[in-house]
Recover the amino acids of this structure.
C-alpha cells in the first residue's frame, strides 16, 4: 500500500546537466517503486533528465547574485523545504551537492538527513563542510578514498561510499547504433584508435594525451586519437597540427550517443589531474575497451583495482586488476609541441604496449567487461536500499 511506503525526499539545485544531477534523477527513478519519493528542485529551468512518475516540487528559487541575495535565497529555500518535509512526513532526505546539502541540514525536522558529496570541490570550502558534517546524520561520498578523507578531516556522525550508477545494459545497446555518416571517413582508416571523453577543461589534461599519442605514432604511425566532448578545442587542434597529426585526431564535439563512438575505439585513455568519480572510464569498460589511466584522485584506482590501497604511490605504474594505472602528471599546462614530460613518455609507452601485446590486450578487455558490472543499476539500488533500511531502523 502507498501509505505504508517510507517517504524519501531527494534535493537537488537543478536538473539541467552534470553528474550529480544525473545521479539524483537516476536515484529518483530507481527508488520510486519501493518508496514514496518526493523530488525537490531549486529551479527546473533547462531540465533535461527524466523524472517522469516522480512527485516533484519546483521551488522556483534559482541562483541569485550578491552575498545578501544568496543568504536570503538560502533562508527561503530552507523555509520551503522545511514546510515540504512536514507536509509529506519525510523520513529520510538525501541532498546532492554543496548548496542542496546546506538547505537539507538546515531544514531538518524528524527526517534522517544524508548529505551527498560528489567531488573534491566541496571539500575546499572547509567552513561549509564542517557545518554540513556536524549537522548531517550521514555523509555520502562517491568514492571510498573521498569518504576516508572526509572522515579524517571533518568527522561526520556517519559516512558511506556509494559509487555512481551506470546503466550498463543501455550503454551496450546504444554502443551498437550507427555513428553519424560525417565521421565514416575517419573511422574507415586503418590503424588503432585511442579514445577519451570529457569537456574541454584543463583538469582533463588533454594536451598530455595528444603528446602521448604523438609519441606512440613514432612506432605505430597509423595510431589515431578521438576526443568526445563539448568545447571549442581550438588550442588542442593547433597542438595536433604542430605535431603533424591533425588528420589523426578527431574532436567529435558533444554527442547524444557517445557510446557508439566509444565502441569504435581500441583503448580508452584518461589523463585527468583530478576526478570525482570518472563515469566515462566505466562506460568505456562496459563496451569492452581496455583502459590506461593516470592514477589521479579520485576514482581510477578504486575502479581499476580491488585492493586500491595498494596503488597509493601516485608516481608508479600499476598493472591493476582491471586496467593500467600510470603516475600522475606534474607541471602546468604546456602546449609547446617540442616539450614532452617523463610522465607523458611513460603514458605513451603503456598505450603502445597495450596496443601491441595481444595477450595483455585481451586480458584487460575481458577484465573491463567484468568490472563494469560492479557499477550497474541493480548494485547501486541494493547499496542505497541497504543504507536507507539501516538508518531508518536503527
Amino acid at each position: 500500500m502507498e501509505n505504508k511506503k517510507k517517504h524519501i525526499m531527494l534535493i537537488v539545485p537543478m536538473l539541467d546537466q552534470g553528474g550529480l544531477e544525473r545521479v539524483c534523477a537516476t536515484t529518483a527513478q530507481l527508488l520510486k517503486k519501493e518508496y514514496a519519493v518526493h523530488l525537490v528542485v531549486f529551479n527546473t529551468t533547462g531540465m533535461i533528465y527524466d523524472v517522469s512518475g516522480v512527485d516533484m516540487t519546483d521551488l522556483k528559487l534559482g541562483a541569485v547574485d550578491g552575498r545578501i541575495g544568496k543568504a536570503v535565497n538560502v533562508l527561503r529555500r530552507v523555509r520551503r523545504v522545511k514546510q515540504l518535509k512536514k507536509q509529506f512526513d519525510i523520513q529520510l532526505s538525501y541532498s546532492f551537492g554543496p548548496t542542496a546539502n546546506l538547505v537539507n541540514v538546515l531544514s531538518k525536522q524528524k527526517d534522517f538527513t544524508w548529505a551527498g558529496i560528489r567531488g573534491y570541490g566541496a571539500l575546499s570550502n572547509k567552513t561549509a563542510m564542517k557545518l554540513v558534517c556536524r549537522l548531517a546524520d550521514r555523509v555520502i561520498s562517491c568514492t571510498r578514498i573521498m569518504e576516508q578523507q572526509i572522515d579524517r578531516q571533518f568527522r561526520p556522525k556517519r559516512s558511506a561510499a556509494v559509487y555512481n550508477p551506470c546503466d550498463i545494459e543501455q550503454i551496450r545497446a546504444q554502443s551498437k547504433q550507427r555513428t553519424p555518416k560525417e565521421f565514416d571517413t575517419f573511422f574507415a582508416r586503418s590503424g588503432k584508435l585511442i579514445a577519451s571523453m570529457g569537456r574541454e577543461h584543463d583538469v582533463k589534461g588533454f594536451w598530455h594525451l595528444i603528446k602521448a599519442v604523438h609519441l606512440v605514432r613514432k612506432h605505430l604511425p597509423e595510431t589515431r586519437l578521438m576526443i568526445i566532448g563539448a568545447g571549442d578545442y581550438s588550442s588542442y587542434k593547433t597542438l595536433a597540427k604542430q605535431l603533424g597529426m591533425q588528420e589523426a585526431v578527431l574532436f567529435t564535439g558533444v554527442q547524444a550517443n557517445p557510446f557508439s563512438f566509444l565502441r569504435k575505439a581500441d583503448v580508452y585513455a584518461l589523463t585527468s589531474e583530478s576526478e570525482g568519480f570518472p563515469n566515462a572510464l566505466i562506460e568505456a569498460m562496459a563496451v569492452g575497451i581496455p583502459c590506461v589511466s593516470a592514477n589521479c584522485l579520485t576514482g581510477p584506482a578504486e575502479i581499476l583495482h580491488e585492493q586500491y590501497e595498494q596503488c597509493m604511490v601516485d608516481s608508479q605504474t600499476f598493472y591493476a586488476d582491471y586496467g593500467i594505472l600510470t603516475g600522475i602528471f606534474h607541471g602546468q599546462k604546456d602546449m609547446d609541441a617540442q616539450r614532452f614530460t617523463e610522465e607523458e613518455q611513460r603514458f605513451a609507452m603503456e598505450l603502445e604496449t597495450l596496443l601491441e601485446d595481444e595477450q595483455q590486450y585481451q586480458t584487460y578487455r575481458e577484465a573491463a567487461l567484468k568490472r563494469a558490472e560492479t557499477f550497474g543499476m541493480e548494485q547501486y539500488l541494493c547499496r542505497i536500499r541497504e543504507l536507507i533500511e539501516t538508518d531508518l531502523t536503527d
User: Anything to note?
Assistant: Residues 67 and 73 are 10 Å apart (CA to CA). The chain has a mean pLDDT of 95. The chain is about 40% helix and 15% strand. The radius of gyration is 22 Å.
